[in-house]
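Here's what a typical entry looks like (Alpha-hydroxy-acid oxidizing enzyme):
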Amino acid sequence: MPPITTIDDLKTIYKRRVPTMFYDYAESGSWSEQTFRENVSDFEKIRLRQKVAVDMTNRSTATTMVGQDVAMPVALAPVGLTGMQHPDGEIKAARAAEKFGVPFTLSTMSICSIEDVAAHTTKPFWFQLYVMKDRDFIERLIDRAKAAGCSALVLTFDLQILGQRHKDIKNGLSAPPKLTIRNMIDIAQRQRWAWGMLGTKRHSFGNIVGHAKGVGDLSSLSSWTAEQFDPALNWDDIAWIKERWGGPLILKGILDVDDARRSVDSGADALIVSNHGGRQLDGALSSIRMLPDIVDAVGKDIEIHMDSGIRSGQDVLKAVALGAKSTYIGRSFIYGLGAMGEKGVTAALNVIHKELDTTMALCGERLITNMSRDNLLIPKGFR
Ligand code: FNR
């Protein structure tokens, strides 16, 4: 196998190894996928300012996220069904992240449970919360995350109802996959995945099954979400969640200046400028385009993170230079995980780190914390 030098290399292997249903689940956006595409293409519009003859020794990409040390300004984003991309996927990704020194965020909709991940890792990970109608269950989930030693809670605010992804419906997305003739042929062509899945007991939603009241048929993700998630979730809910949790709280899915101001008022410790990787409101602006306005409006009042569209260290650098304290990667680590398990996630982190470190040096900076808009050439009208 040729050496892995880009995130795209991992994606090529990922596509060959993972059943189509799960590849499509990750590699799609909602409706026309305009926002999904622009999340990536808008990064290319920002250019970097080259600076030469600057001392580039003793460089550091280290920074902090909600007061916690990180080796670079990148965390693994919460991704549902990660354990379907690779057997025990959440455990594998969490282990790669902890070895690298970046946070891993476990999704509510994970296959490995909070307790599974805690049992197989040594450092605290983060937990992402979706708020469902059954508030007793949500309180128990928060308590479980606390008991497992999770060190931040990421509250997702942009998915009370699900943005439609056509392929998931056409594929009949479920976990575990339904054994239709089409799926069986697809899986037979991906034996590595199938043997791995036979070797684990974790085949369905670990945090939910057996814990949530009224959860019956989890076989269709979209109808289950519509039934369980709370469409009434609003700003007032942050108070009880914050009180119950008691630790660092990060609000995910902020893409509007007024919402950013309300995030500050809510007392959250950080917000994530995010459009859910283009999976929710199709037609929304890319996160990287919205980032400068949000930084200008509330950057002094709250820590700002961003995600959606990051496929390289250059992308991370641009987001940080625009004012994000840190970023998250979703698909970029999923490609690595599906391609090669824990090693693949490590490969993704290494690729991004190398790109980030070299690009920073060629911009004439030694510390990631020194990057600013001065390092960028931003086209007129970008924002
Ligand atoms: C997600 N995302 C997500 N977010 C969340 O808060 N809870 C979740 O369970 C999921 N599940 C999920 C599944 C898949 C397959 C993807 C691709 C994404 C959104 C995720 O946390 C993050 O916002 C995006 O992935 C960022 O965009 P990129 O990096 O994938 O372009």
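The chain has a mean pLDDT of 95.

More examples are in the samples folder.
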